[in-house]
Design a protein that fits this description.
- The complex is a heterodimer of chains A (96) and B (157).
- Helix content of chain A is 58%, strand content 4%.
- Chain A is mostly helical and 96 residues long.
- With 157 residues, chain B is α+β, with helices and mostly antiparallel strands.
- Chain B is 43% helix and 27% strand.
- Chain B contains seven helices and ten strands.
- A five-stranded mixed β-sheet of chain B has the order 1-3-6-5-4. A two-stranded antiparallel ribbon of chain B has the order 7-8.
- In chain B, strand 9 and strand 10 form a beta hairpin.
- Classes of the chains: A mainly alpha (96), B alpha+beta (157).
- At the A-B interface, helix 1, helix 2, helix 3, helix 4 and strand 1 of A face helix 2, strand 2, strand 9 and helix 7 of B.
Chain lengths: 96, 157
């Protein structure tokens, strides 16, 4: 098995810029009008179902989120620091 | 960030005890409700008259405000930070990117309480309102969160 090669700081910055981009009202309306497909809904509900079964209380979920964030930070290239206010990053890789 | 040193339950307990009308929004609220997303900080929407009470509640955690209450009211937001970061929105109404005006008082009246520790009930918006707050920012990741919230709403229906 090949070892995991972490993304470069430049690649991470590119992804971050895309994720933080401000959408126009037209883009927002178009996105909100797009119905959730059956497969996407099933996947999302399965993810939520797993998380709620594994962590039944809000307190357990919040504790898990702090632990997962620390793990995510530890895996980042050292040169990369999330920008102030980066309240969000990515969906968790939770190892289902 | 040394997350392990931060007593999150005590943080929420202090806010609850302060009487400040503070709604947890953002991805931390999604997590509390049951959506596994990654998040670095805390986002609150605070009643415009409760800034001082909120600041006093989190001060024992070393969280210091970036602005005076008056400045925060004028700008509509401020930050509290040390090793942790708390983004605070203070506005009576906030427009979504697509033009819907959302009033704090309306959202507060429909809030849910989540017990996160003994004597610590966390106020979060009703899921419909949480979806609206995700339209304040209008970034691609906000849209992704909205779709997850819609799945959660169906799960709870």
């Amino acid at each position: 098995m090949k070892p995991l090669v972490p993304p470069t700081p430049a690649a991470l910055e590119t992804v971050r810029a895309l994720a933080e981009r401000q959408l126009s009202p037209e883009e927002i309306r178009a996105a909100l009008a797009r119905p959730i497909g059956e497969a996407e809904e099933e996947e999302s509900r399965a993810l939520i179902g797993w998380f709620r079964r594994r962590y039944p209380t809000p307190a357990e979920r919040l504790t898990y989120a702090r632990r997962a964030y620390r793990r995510w930070r530890a895996a980042l290239p050292t040169a990369v620091t999330p920008p102030p206010g980066a309240a969000t990053a990515d969906r968790l890789s939770h190892g289902r | 960030m040394q997350g392990s040193e931060f007593d999150e339950a005590e943080f929420f307990r202090g806010i609850a005890a302060s009487g400040a009308r503070a709604l947890l929004i953002g991805r931390r609220a999604l997590v509390a409700l049951g959506i596994p997303v990654l998040t670095a900080d805390y986002d609150f929407w605070l009643h415009i008259d409760d800034i001082a009470a909120f600041n006093a509640a989190v001060e024992p955690h070393g969280l210091l405000p970036s602005r005076t209450p008056e400045e925060a009211r004028n700008r509509g937001r401020y930050v509290l930070e040390n090793d942790e970061r708390v983004d605070v929105l203070v506005a009576r109404t906030v427009p979504t990117v697509d033009g819907v005006r959302v009033a704090f008082d309306d959202v507060w009246s429909r809030r849910r309480g989540l017990d996160v520790a003994p004597a610590a009930t966390l106020a979060v918006p009703h899921i419909d309102d949480l979806i609206l707050t995700k339209r304040f920012g209008g970034r691609p990741k906000d849209l992704e969160d909205i779709r997850l919230l819609e799945a959660l709403r169906k799960e709870d229906a």
